[in-house]
Design brief:
This protein is 31% helix and 8% strand. By secondary structure, it is an alpha/beta fold. Among the domains are: 34 residues, no CATH class; 33 residues, no CATH class; 127 residues. A four-stranded parallel beta sheet has the order 3-4-5-6, with no helix packed on it. It is extended. The two termini are 67 Å apart. Belongs to the TRAFAC class YlqF/YawG GTPase family. NOG2 subfamily. Its main location: nucleus.
Length: 335
């Protein structure tokens, strides 16, 4: 007889350490030991008590008696965790500042780093920082207070009425200039604006549109910012760039210069190296030149540079931020 077919070999093979004659009460051909234990669990719902009403055996999973817990003695429980020296923090802050605006560098495991310590706070004092030097607490509040009334811009009711009427007149003049072309609307502001104040230009500026835009930014890993080659500064959104830089520094921002066929070649090249547009942006962001698909039929505009943007490999001998891709390159594969 083969040794693998014996009852002893079966128990060894199935890791059954019980004796062959021992069985759980209720185990038979229809119910195995596991099923019987599962059914007995429902019957053990009540606690067993003696004649005095004391609990002899607690209900299933209701026993409150637990052994005394002991903590392993270790000196690490009494020391600091995740500490860093001041010189190491300064060195890391400088290295982080150099790589913070680099789109080619990705920081992994940000939750392990004290990012709140790396962000340098504004050291400029507010106007009310030295208020105690001019007006102390004792001379402002309490029985020794010298200020009997609040400080106001007007000393009398007539002077306050004159200031109010002057501000109202100035506000009405601004409201009259708003519907016009707007050449004089921002004369009292810091910057001079020469854009037309037409109603059509307010389209797409509602709160709902901006909420949808931020939803797209929050759900994206790579954001493509399309610029018009005819007016790159007018089609560039500084608020979106600042939002990505401040709130989502791990996201990648790519600038696509579109409609380059409508401007001369030297204009497209000058836009890439324009100080106003790219003075500090060129080494920090991806800049791509894009043209209509009809050109891709006869001339592939830099397809040999890289098959896709995600697999770009930049050589040390050329500038890494300026690469040119054709329409077929962008549309053939995923980013």
């Amino acid at each position: 007889m083969a040794t693998g077919k014996t009852e002893k070999a079966r128990r060894v093979r199935q890791n059954d350490l019980r004796d062959g004659n021992l069985r759980v009460k209720g185990e038979n051909f229809y119910r195995d030991a596991k099923k019987v234990k599962h059914l007995n669990m429902y019957k053990e719902g009540k606690a067993v008590r003696n004649a005095k009403g004391e609990v002899i055996k607690a209900a299933y999973l209701q026993d409150t008696k637990a052994p005394t817990a002991r903590v392993d003695p270790n000196r690490r429980w009494f020391g600091n965790t995740r500490v860093i020296a001041q010189d190491a923090l300064t060195h890391f802050r400088e290295a982080m500042g150099n790589k913070k605006d680099d789109s080619y560098t990705v920081l992994l495991k940000r939750n392990k780093l004290p990012m709140s310590l790396l962000d340098e706070k504004d050291t400029n004092e507010s106007p009310s920082a030295r208020i105690l030097e001019t007006e102390s607490f004792e001379h402002t509040f309490g029985p020794k207070a010298q200020r009997k009334k609040p400080t106001t811009v007007a000393s009398s009711l007539e002077e306050l009425a004159q200031l109010t009427s002057a501000e109202q007149t100035q506000y009405e003049e601004k409201q009259e200039l708003k519907p016009t072309l707007g050449l004089m609307g921002g004369i009292d502001t810091d910057e001079f604006s020469a854009e037309a104040k037409e109603f059509i230009f307010s389209k797409g500026q509602s709160k709902r549109i901006w909420n949808e835009l931020y939803k797209v930014i929050d759900s994206s890993d790579v954001v493509i910012h399309v610029l018009d080659a005819r007016d790159p500064l007018g089609t560039r959104c500084q608020s979106v760039e600042q939002y990505i830089k401040k709130e989502s520094p791990h996201k990648h921002l790519i600038f696509v210069l579109n409609k380059c066929d409508l401007v001369p070649t030297w204009v497209a090249v000058s836009i890439l190296f324009c100080p106003r547009l790219n003075g500090t942006m060129l080494p920090k962001f991806f800049v791509r030149i894009f043209h209509p698909p009809i050109w891709s039929i006869c001339y592939d505009f830099g397809r040999s540079c890289s098959p896709t943007v995600g697999r770009c490999r930049f050589d040390a001998g050329r500038h890494p931020a300026v690469l040119r891709f054709g329409a077929a390159t962008w549309c053939s594969g995923p980013l």
